[in-house]
TrEMBL record:
Lineage of origin: Eukaryota, Fungi, Dikarya, Ascomycota, Pezizomycotina
CDD domains: PCBER_SDR_a (cd05259)
Annotated GO MF terms: oxidoreductase activity
Residue span(s) of domain NmrA-like: 6-242
UniProt protein name: NmrA-like domain-containing protein
Keywords, comma-separated and alphabetical: NADP, Oxidoreductase
Species whose genome carries this gene: Xylaria flabelliformis
SUPFAM superfamilies documented for this protein: NAD(P)-binding Rossmann-fold domains
UniProt entry tagged with the keyword Translocase: no
InterPro entries referenced in this protein's UniProt entry, alphabetically: NAD(P)-bd_dom_sf, NmrA-like, NmrA/Isoflavone_reductase-like, PCBER-like
Pfam families the record matches: NmrA
Length: 299
């Protein structure tokens, strides 16, 4: 039985997801150190240490990770492919659990979907971690798929709603349930993984605050606002074609198009309900969809 995790290094704790994770780890009683780029101007809550590192240097990272029990990487999508030095440093520093920067769709079964081309950085990093873990059994990992960031996506358009214009974009019938998680809930799940080392060892898990359909979300926002919203209906398959065209020109914003096709398409089958949702394993409960939408509409 391994001793509990105490010291946690968070990589990229200043971005979209990072602050929620840092807060939840601190609340759960972990000693948190955030690693930042030398160029970073990020600031962190009182009691959270920060260390500037060079993400290309195993030496710099190994020195920063001395004494850390776990590494949680929330590094930016553009930087996920460069995590090998971080993995090597984690092994060298004796880190016991790494959670790599996944936090989206499950990257373990993408088949030949074109979105897989853009997710290679995540896929290769996890493959590398797996290999290192086999060579060093005390170095363990957990991958976490969260589906869409729901609270963040309401603000940033990925849920398809615009509260200023009261407009909803719905792909296909709008009846396909999709995996979605609120940022603080993801932070709680990460903390729970680090408190449940044995249950989560060398596993890829999926969590969801809820699995709504686009139509359910629309129905709730119409109920709360007391008005009918303008609905634009689009075929999900068109998003795939747009993505392929963009990618052929080296435009990686294709990711959003591929993502819409993958999760909203009728029959996508990517909801993580019942035993597929690891919240139970982590001792957590789901969240309230209507409450999340009320909070957003009131902001
Ligand atoms: N499921 C979803 O809907 C969804 C949405 C967005 C993101 N994600 C995923 O969640 C993870 C975290 O994404 P995020 O949006 O929170 O990340 P982000 O805000 O773009 O970046 C996180 C931090 O990474 C650090 N960083 C290190 N190298 C960097 C570089 N080359 N360029 C930019 N930043 C760099 C920065 O911290 P310092 O400045 O302190 O060094 C930055 O604040 C990723 O795996 C991403 O793919 C999922």
């Amino acid at each position: 039985m391994s001793s509990p995790i105490k010291n946690v290094a968070v990589v990229g704790g200043s971005g979209n997801l990072g602050p929620a994770v840092v807060n939840e780890l601190v609340d759960a009683g972990f000693e948190v150190t955030v690693l930042t780029r030398g160029s970073s101007t990020s600031t962190f809550p009182a009691g959270v240490a920060s260390k500037a590192v060079d993400y290309t240097s195993v030496e710099s990272l190994t020195s920063a990770l001395q004494g850390q029990d776990a590494v949680v990487s929330i590094i930016a999508s553009v930087a996920v492919a460069g995590q090998k030095p971080l993995v090597d440093a984690a092994v060298a520093a004796g880190v016991r659990r790494i959670i790599p920067s996944e936090f989206g769709i499950n990257t373990r079964f993408l088949g030949k979907e074109p979105i897989g081309a853009i997710l290679q950085g995540k896929i290769q990093t996890l493959n590398y971690i797996h290999e290192k873990s086999k060579q060093n059994p005390s170095f363990t990992w957990t991958g976490i798929s969260t589906g869409l960031f729901f609270d963040w996506g309401l603000e940033h358009g990925s849920i398809g709603l615009n509260k200023d214009t009261k407009t909803a974009t719905i792909y296909d019938s709008g009846d396909e349930p999709y995996q979605a998680s609120n940022l603080p809930h993801i932070g709680k799940a990460i903390a729970a993984v680090l408190k449940n080392l044995e249950k989560t060892v060398n596993r890829y898990i999926s969590i969801a605050s809820f699995n709504p359909t686009q139509n359910q979300v629309l129905e709730i926002v119409e109920k709360i606002t007391g008005t009918k919203w303008t609905v634009n209906k689009l075929p999900a398959s068109e998003q795939q074609q747009i993505g392929v065209e963009k990618l052929s020109k080296g435009d990686y914003s294709a990711f959003s198009n591929f993502l819409r096709k993958r999760i909203f398409e009728d029959g996508a089958g990517l909801a993580v309900a019942g035993p597929d949702n690891a919240l139970d394993l982590l001792g957590l409960e789901g969240e309230d969809l209507e409450e999340s939408l009320r909070t957003w509409l009131a902001e």
